Amino acid sequence: MQRIDDATAATSLPTPEAAGTPGYFTEGNPTAGTPATNVRGSWLNMIQEELMAVVTAGGVTPSKTTYNQVYQALQALFQQKSAFAASLGGVGYLKIPSPVGTFILQWGTSATLAANTVIGVTFPVAFPSACVAAFANPVDPGTTASYRVNVTTVSKTGAVIGCTYSSPAFPAFWFAIGY
After folding, report:
1. Is 41 exposed, middle or buried (0-12, 13-18, 19+ CB in 10 A)?
2. What are the mean pLDDT values of the chain's consecutive 10-residue runs (179 residues total)?
3. For 79, which of 18, 27, 70, 124 is 20 to 30 Å away at the CA?
4. pTM
């Protein structure tokens, strides 16, 4: 894909004429007095610039002699946007690509927590920008003990879980989301 480089081409993008009523191309019909559709420079410039935007966004260097550059660019863009990644285990993560960045969901189980203690957990992968929320719930010990588990601190790489309860000691499930 390369911009037109004919000797008659304009050196800068001309201002297009005002938009008219949207329509469709026709070959015309001389017997019915219907003229063929004129293909204007502004329409061709629009198509050219749309295609150039795809090529450059895909990281492809425009070339006059390569005839699959839009295809190459689309492949690169789809690979970037559909780069799901996951580690689906008891401790794991899921990376979800989106137009505004990659969201990451992470989960796991802490070590055993005793009454009135805190414990650090390390996320399976670091959040590139920030952990925006983290939650924890106790792994039910199967007793009627009163307990409370909460996340006291979060960072890109981990969290601190605190707990208060009577007894017994047990781990906590945790969940974090970020980007």
Report:
1. middle
2. 92 92 94 95 95 94 95 84 80 87 93 87 96 89 70 96 77 94
3. 124
4. 0.55
